[in-house]
């Protein structure tokens, strides 16, 4: 519109809307966040290194034991050959002794394991059974987490269970809890309930394993300390899982009143049922490994072999876990050869114990890798919370 003096003023142009500057992150907070990320990466790397080193030492020890036992059998055969080849009248064995030595030599030759005479089909079945037993034990953990008020996805619970198994090869067994609780945290299960659930699952598996072993070995001529160990392990491991005790523990550790009610007793019943099935699977796995190793001894009935194999492997794992040694090194072999040796002979029992350790490690590593891939595809780590916005000056 023209002004009174006849001139026209230019219209004011609209200014483009200005956007507020992006909020900035305080330098101190940025440094803390960066350090936290670095610390988490370092801790994860140290955990991975500890697990790998522990597995390496365990595999190396088992391989050395296997080689030593094989060489011992070969040495015995050479000694028998030397006696059979004795030419002097004083050292020459009699006809009866020659027959006995020949039988011993034949039995020893049949007991030497080679790549060609090991039963690979039974070993494959053993691997599947052990894997199933490992996964079934995860149902015990899930039942206890449910009692504590958390329902993480079943696949996540099984992943935490399988990853935790590789942690037992690190001295002290604490890595088992660290790995499992860390995985459960990806489903917003707090550290304390996750830790309590892991301990409850472990105690229940140990209690059931010791009970199963005690029932079977009470009918066998084993050393008294084994029966006492089975009975003591069953009682001591059962105490923390009793609902009255559990209610006191959870109330104190979780800083809130715990009312578990009948849910805890139901979890106990489910835990015992799942644990029994798990131990039968693991015992069946060990029985298949026993049959995979060549021997000249007459075969045992399937039912008797399953019962003794389940008792020996369950008690060996319970005592090995209580020893706090990586993977129960040495302790498991002692228990297995003592119990299983009653029906298979000490040499065959020791070879079965060593082969079982190797097969179990392979299965645990395969399951752990599958769990790791699942976690990284479905439960990626949550990013750290963003820094608080700082208004511009």
UniProtKB/TrEMBL annotation:
Its main location: membrane. One of its GO terms (cellular component) is plasma membrane. It holds the Pfam family LPG_synthase_TM. Residues 13-26 have a biased composition (Pro residues). Residues 1-32 are annotated as: Disordered. It is a multi-pass membrane protein. Keywords: Cell membrane, Membrane, Transmembrane, Transmembrane helix. Residues 1-11 have a biased composition (Polar residues). The keyword Cell membrane applies. The chain crosses the membrane at residues 38-59, 118-141, 191-218, 225-246, 272-293, 305-329, 349-375. It is found in: Cell membrane. The keyword Transcription regulation does not apply. Coiled coil: none annotated. It comes from the Bacteria. This is Uncharacterized protein. It comes from Novipirellula galeiformis.
